[in-house]
Amino acid sequence: MATANQRGRRAHERGTGSGAETGDLHALAAELRRMNGEINRLVHGFAATHGLHATDVQALAAILDAAEPMTPGRLREHLGLTSGAVTACVDRLERAGHVRRVRESADRRVVHLHYVSGARAAARTWFRPLAEAAAATRDRFDADELAVVVRFMAAMNEELRLARPSDTR
After folding, report:
1. pLDDT in tens, 108-154
2. 141 partner at 20 to 30 Å CA-CA among 1, 58, 134, 166?
3. With left for phi above 0 and alpha for psi between -120 and 50, is residue 144 left, alpha or beta?
4. What is d(CA 78, CA 96) in angstroms, rounded to the nearest whole number?
């Protein structure tokens, strides 16, 4: 499997195309940075208001987005943190009333992390401007265009995952 640097070198060796394509790539990168900055502004505001760290908000998102109940071990892998850092993060989230730890009934060693419903409502309220901006933006595109955007974002996230140092994947 090629590393992100190897893929980047191959793309560079193929040529970057016309100046317009290079400009488009720079414009895309700038827009992605701007979007990331705006989302980070919301995340940091939510964290500060709730006495959390930005990483704690990332943990909440991971718990919310998980296809199956999140465990501290999977959260550690997802966030790329040490087990001690994840324990401290989950402790803060639990003290703040955002998550609860639930022991798996079949195996008492297994702990699942659940988002507390009242905390979920508070997060929805805080992040409503993001949801409204996404809905307003979505309405500017047809289904085929949105499919391309989703495909691009999924591919970008996969490339970023592959670009992580191997000890944090």
Report:
1. 788 999 999 888 888 889 999 999 999 999 999 999 999 999 999 99
2. 58
3. alpha
4. 21
How many Å is the maximal CA-CA distance in the chain? Answer: 61
What 3 state SS string does 6-70 have?
Answer: HHHHHHHHHCCCCHHHHHHHHHHHHHHHHHHHHHHHHHHHHHHHCCCCHHHHHHHHHHHHCCCCE
Question: Which contacts qualify for 78-81: CB closer than 8 Å, 24 or more apart?
Answer: 79/55, 80/164, 80/168, 81/55
pLDDT tens for residues 63-121? 998 999 899 999 999 999 999 999 999 999 999 999 999 997 787 788 999 999 888 88
Residue in this structure with the two tokens 């703040």, named with its chain if needed? 96
Q: How many C-beta atoms lie closer than 10 Å to residue 25's C-beta?
A: 12
Residue 51 vs residues 40, 44, 95, 97: alpha-carbon distances, Å: 16, 10, 10, 11
Distance of CA 59 to the CA centre of its chain: 9
